[in-house]
């Protein structure tokens, strides 16, 4: 069984037991359970249930595995002939979750 969920504008295809990296959830601590309620589609190989826009009563339960940082991104701003140079960096924070259960 699989589901397509929406989390803050991003869509993910998830299956039971899958480990997924999503944007940081500030309120979730490692080991806690979270519920993702925006389920757009549920399929089990033969039948597919498509929501309009969401599937009623469907939800995905997951466990927070860890919090981690992504690769460092260098942002370099430069203006030609003006002696203007700025170099900054950024590391995005992510939450890693494990899908425990898909409830249709």
Question: Can you give a write-up of this model?
Answer:
The chain has 104 residues and is mostly beta strands. The protein has one domain (2-103). Helix content is 0%, strand content 67%. It has no helices and eight strands. It has strands at 2-7, 10-15, 19-23, 33-36, 39-43, 48-50, 59-79, 84-103. The strands form two sheets. A four-stranded antiparallel sheet has the order 2-1-5-6, with no helix packed on it. It has a four-stranded antiparallel sheet with strand order 3-8-7-4, with no helix packed on it. Strand 7 and strand 8 form a beta hairpin. It is elongated, with a radius of gyration of 19 Å. The model has no long low-confidence stretch (mean pLDDT 94).
Uncertain runs are none
Question: Which structural category do the helix and sheet elements fall into?
Answer: mainly beta
Order of helices and strands: EEEEEEEE
Strand percentage lies at over 45%
| Span between termini | 10 Å
Tell me the helix content.
under 10%
Average pLDDT level? 94
Total strand segments: 8
Give the overall shape.
elongated
Radius of gyration: 19 Å
User: Can you list the strand order of the major beta sheet?
Assistant: 2-1-5-6
